[in-house]
Design goal:
Helix content is 35%, strand content 23%. With 124 residues, the protein is an alpha+beta fold. The chain folds into two domains: 74 residues, no CATH class; 37 residues, no CATH class.
Amino acid sequence: MNDEQLFTNYHAAIKHYLAENGDPDAEFTLYDGGDKKIVIRTWESKVPQPTDSDLKKIKVSDLEDDKKIRQVKTMLKGSTFPSITTSQRNRLGEVETGAIILNSETGRLEVKTAEGWKVLAFEG
């Protein structure tokens, strides 16, 4: 990461650094002293405070991956498939193709296809 990318992504780079070093929930604050020079004002972590050199080793693509992971985690928070019996499923009427339910009688995920409800099969 170059200087401009680091300035733009400083907070994300530190979050990535902390996650990679085993302390993703650490607390820190930053200060922008001007002249595109950000400094770490407070640091509460068991992980040593990173230098700009440490942070520049992080790739922008790593930060993009982190962002995607945060988005998915947010989407999954409190998200579960509706759990219904086979009888309840059969009384749903018109259901959009691709809808997924957890059949509470079989314990299996089922997806609505053009042909009807199909059990999702998993390998392994």
